[in-house]
Amino acid sequence: NYAKSKGIPVGPGRGSAVGSIVCYLIGISDIDPIRYGLFFERFVNPERPSFPDIDVDLCRERRGEVLDYVRHKYGEDKVAQIITFGTLGAKMVVRDVGRVLGFSYGDVDRIAKMIPAGPKVTLQSALESDPDFKKAYDEEPMVKSIIDIGFRLEGLSRNASTHAAGVVISDEDLTNFVPLGRGSNDEIVTQFVMEDVDKIGLLKMDFLGLKNLTIIDNAVKIIKEHRGIDLNISEIPVDDKKTLDLLNRAETTGLFQLESSGMTDLARKIKIDRFEDIMAMVALFRPGPMEMIGDFIKRKQEQATIKYEHPLLEPILKETHGIFVYQEQVMQAANTLAGYSLGDSDILRRAMGKKIPEEMAAQRERFLKGAKENKIDRSTAERIFDLMEKFAGYGFNKSHSAAYAFIVYQTAYLKANYPVEYMAALLSNEISDTEQIAKYINECERMGIKVLPPDINESEGKFTVVEKGIRFGLAAVKNVGTAAIEHIISKRRKRGKYRTFFEFVSDIDHRIVNRKVLESLIKCGAFDTMGHNRAQLLKALDEKIIETAAKQHEEKKRGQGSLFEVLDYDNKATAYEPELPAVPEFPSKTILSFEKELLGFYITGHPLANYRDKIKHLNCAGLLEINNIPDRARVKVACLISALRLTMKKKTSEKMAILSIEDGESTMEALVFPEAYSKCGSKIHQDEAYVIIGTVNKRDEKPKIVVEDLHPLEGLDQNIIREINKIFGIGKFVEANGNIRRYERKKEEVLTVVQTKNSFLKIVVDEKKVSIEKLKEIYDILSQHPGSKSVVIVFVSGQKERVLQCEITVNMDEQLIKYLREKDYILNCA
To answer: Is residue 192 domain-resident?
Structure first.
């Protein structure tokens, strides 16, 4: 209530408390638990051993205000945040041990990079899974010494920090129960971690800062300001056609929890027609239940038969098409089939999740006994219990799914119905993250929304909605600080828009808006609408125009206005200002480099735009797509080299290069090792556009490209394009050998089409006999049969194989198979 009274955005609810009708009625949650079949007993019941807690999502920017309120209301000595400990993971322990033992950074970095990325990777699992790492351990004494010490230290606490959400509140001084300390920002924290705080009986609350609530709130404010509409985001209809259509088109960029490629793909396939489908998406897209996604989609779209183990399960599982998705369904099944109270069924759910053998044996007997009383035969009851046990381990809290699905829906509703306002709020929220800004600007372009450069007469601190689109915020311009922005906006509001550059510079305080700020504003195009080019304005900074303007500003401050100001002539602003130097505008390449320097990306264009036709013919992978391309796959990308660093390989002292590359949507690192550098190093220049051929390297958290060769896009002719495309056929990448199951083939076969158990279409090609024209013909045929089956083309040349994963998916119907069989270059099709 305090947060809402102060205009601090609060989420619709979180966790099991959403299942409480009381929480709904008094405004703690916005989700009707009766409408969505949520259970109060999942939140609290007499058998629950631990205290129930109510978790709250808050605007991330103003979470601190709520914490201050809680401290003030309950007392500084009764409220504390909770400590958390970071542990030594596999990579970190290698780096720490190597540093302490005095080994060089390069050597230690090489060892750490051999360890695969991932939260559950250990030194032991890395040795078992990575041959290079195992070889280094066996053959290099330095590596062995680091790893052996690392085995003893791995998993130990390395550092302390403050939990992102956890807060404890007590009715007595907390020091009566728990030792306290100070966090990195001098906040009071418990010295017990969250689990231990819970065990000693303290009330734990989660106050989680969620940026999406800030985005939603800002979007609603912009809608009010721009359209005059008072939108109550908590009361929007949950069956809005525009919203559901947007989700079904998988336009998920900028939507809460749906931005990953997997979620985008799921949105495209699931065919959402009601709010409950979004709830199921939130619950299914996690390790464990993810394996059920395919079956869920088939059942939902009536492509598979829904079978219930017993008729009593139908009303429980009908909404999820016969599949256990939610924890509450396990509870309801125990209640309906075996006579458990809902409180007891929650105990059963917890027992199934923990999988304690003795407890599970007792629960099984109780379930079978209760099922027998309901006249369910033992074998059926056994199967149902096994099914419940399997899904209870990763079943999701339906109350939480409903609450977070509503945030998903709110963001989708705003994007579908108020796209300009929502994207402006989204961009403003990411104003300091240039990579995210670039991604959302690309999304605006796809949506037909113009993102306009900064403008001294229109821009506010953040992104704003204007008549022609979204205007860039001044806070995104490098070297332009908060004081300068506030001064510019304050001056503009007092006197109106500036007509000329001189009028602006003679009105501002040059101690606040100094030369560096002016230079940055000119370079990024903030004065372009005044009719002068950027070269003129930058040249003017070197001449006496600034001195004259500063002098006029000081005279105004002393009340020494000019005669013309006293007479208030209409042309007073322009009649007596110095002329700007007559110099031609910078080349477009220079202007774009200014924008990159000051904004972090290009706004009025992109250097790759000049090569759009060549890139189209090359059919390159985008850098964002690299995340979905397998490790060690051979790939081609069109990109700009935005940074270049030459270095030497440690062991051989040979020259190599480390490149930062970008394509307007994402950035990535590319490595040019000595062998490749000796071949193409002379062609590498910063700020030039290239097509790069290389392999994907996913050893680290962020993927890289190991460059094999590159070609400048400038001067790239059709012959080179054809040679590049021969390597890749019709695809964007070729998988490394061994990533697809091997197959039997006869050497005389030119082309064989095989329908495999993995439900993808595999086409085996004799590389020496197949032509680009035939591959294009295959592609055209496949494109006419869209569906969900992947397509793999395997190129065979002697004993060598290359596997190409096509970006299209097909429906393997009889018509397609028949059509393929009729082609003379396809000898077999099954």
So the answer is: no
Q: How far is CA 249 from CA 60, 83, 264, 268, 393, in A?
A: 30, 43, 9, 6, 32
**Which tens digit of pLDDT belongs to each residue from 571-610?**
444 445 778 888 999 998 899 989 988 988 888 888 888 8
Q: What is the CA radius of gyration of the chain?
A: 32
The dihedral of CA 160, 164, 170, 172: what is its sign? positive
Distance CA 484, CA 472 (A): 16
Checking if the pLDDT of 743 tops 80, the result is no
Q: 213 with 200: CB under 8 angstroms? A: no
745-800 pLDDT, tens per residue? 333 333 444 333 344 566 766 666 666 667 767 776 776 776 666 676 766 665 55
Same domain, 454 and 491: yes
Same domain, 485 and 553: yes
Please report which residue ranges of 101-156 form alpha helices under DSSP H: 105-114, 123-129, 131-139, 141-153
pLDDT category of residue 566 using cuts at 50, 70 and 90: very low
Neighbouring residues of 487: CB distance < 8 A, sequence distance ≥ 6: 508, 509, 512, 513
Domain identity same for 636 and 680: yes
Round the average pLDDT of the chain to a whole number and report it: 83
Are 285 and 263 in contact, with CB atoms under 8 Å apart? Answer: yes
Size of the chain, expressed as the number of residues it contains: 830
State the average pLDDT over residues 485-494. 93
d(CA 114, CA 632): 14
Q: Which of 344, 427, 351, 417 is nearest to 389 (CA)?
A: 351
Residues 337 and 466 occupy one common structural domain: no
pLDDT confidence of residue 789: 67
**Residue 444's pLDDT is what?**
92
Closest CA to 467 of 482, 477, 457: 457
CA 372 to chain centre: 49
Pairing of strands 464-466, 451-452: unpaired
Q: Which domain holds residue 793?
A: 751-829
3-state secondary structure at position 761: strand
Number of domains in the chain: 5
Write the secondary structure of 541-595 as one string of H (helix), E (strand) and C (coil).
HCCCHHHHHHHHHHHHHCCCCCHHHHHCCCCHHHHCCCCCCCCCCCCHHHHHHHH
82 in Cβ contact with 191 (< 8 Å): no
